[in-house]
Amino acid sequence: MIDKTVDIERERRVLLEMHAKSREAHFATDVEAAISDLAEEQIIVRDGVVRRMTKGDMRQNMTGYFAGATFHEWDDVEPPIVKVSDDASIAWMITNTKVRLTRAGGDGNESEAAFVYAGILTFEKRGGRWVRTTNVSTFAAGDE
After folding, report:
1. Which of 110, 36, 46, 107 is nearest to 72 (CA)?
2. Could you tell me which of 41, 104, 105, 119 has the fewest CB atoms within 10 Å of its CB?
3. Helix H or strand E segment including 56
4. Using CA atoms, how far apart are residues 123 and 16, in angstroms rounded to an integer?
5. Domain count along the chain
């Protein structure tokens, strides 16, 4: 039964705003902003492996990923697909994002990386706010 008091479209917009803030966090290489919507523990699926990671683990990963990085692209290839449950307690988002960045190496040289990310993120409403609970990721080489 659909809860008529839940504004599904508003919840969808909130999730899309979170996606936009993730983009901003990448350009700013702001680790705390990048992990601000994470649950204290989440499930990560990548490269045929399923693992549980804490927010602290993700902070450490993002710190390394952002170190010396400058993002030139972090743009949707197509608009995210967002589905919110009828009671707005859970949601998922499928994203397809083109990423291009340069990274300064310890030797002073820069290297470029380009890839396309496609994945699904799951969210739960906890304490009145959405938190990301799962990230299932796929990657393909970007334009060379």
Report:
1. 110
2. 105
3. helix 55-66
4. 12
5. 1
Q: Is residue 3 part of a domain?
A: no
CA-to-CA distance for 99 and 83, rounded, in angstroms? 24
Write out the residue range of the structural domain in which residue 42 sits. 8-141
| CATH code of 48's domain | 3.10.450.50
Question: Which pairs from 131-134 meet CB under 8 Å and 24+ separation?
Answer: 131/37, 131/38, 131/39, 132/18, 132/37, 132/38, 132/39, 132/42, 133/39, 133/42, 133/43, 134/42, 134/43, 134/44, 134/45
Q: Per-residue pLDDT for the chain (144 aa), expressed as one digit of tens each?
A: 556 789 999 999 999 999 999 999 999 999 999 999 999 999 999 999 999 999 999 999 999 999 999 999 999 999 999 999 999 999 999 999 999 999 987 777 899 999 999 999 999 999 999 999 999 999 999 764
The predicted model scores a pTM of 0.91
Residue 1, in any domain of the structure? no
